[in-house]
Specification:
The chain is built from 3 helices and 6 strands; from the N terminus they run ββααββββα. It is an alpha+beta fold and 127 residues long. It is elongated. The termini are far apart.
Length: 127
């Protein structure tokens, strides 16, 4: 007696316990997602400070600022400004809600942290 075809929820029909077409599409999507995450992790490993808290568009801006300063461009040319209370800290605005904080030392510029503006107020309010 021949086997009967089964129709699954996806609308495909065939023999077996599950839809092999949909399973193949799901596996390809998982592989693409894993590749995307691996690429993202590789970018985050190369960063001087942890930029994972920032949205993707602001991560790009922060990486551009970091790269320009490492090449020797002065921080004021990259949109940085000193704090009024403590002149050693330099802050870069990354949109309305995100900040990149660094310190200007005589020999070298050092990045400290990327954070939201609420964290920024808390961190630098005590300094």
């Amino acid at each position: 007696m021949p086997k009967r075809k089964t129709t699954w929820e996806c609308g495909h029909s065939g023999q077996g316990k599950f839809c092999h077409r949909c399973e193949q599409v799901r596996i390809e999507a998982l592989r693409a997602e894993e590749a995307r995450l691996a690429k993202k992790q590789a970018k985050l490993k190369d960063d001087v400070v942890d930029l994972s808290v920032l949205p993707e568009s602001h991560q790009i801006t922060a990486r551009d600022i970091i790269r320009r300063i490492e090449k020797g461009v002065h921080w004021s040319r990259c949109g940085g400004r000193r704090l009024r209370k403590n002149q050693t800290y330099v802050v870069f605005e990354l949109g309305l809600r995100w900040r990149l904080i660094g310190t200007d030392k005589k020999e070298k510029f050092e990045f400290l942290q990327a954070c939201s503006h609420q964290e920024y107020n808390t961190i630098l309010g005590s300094h």
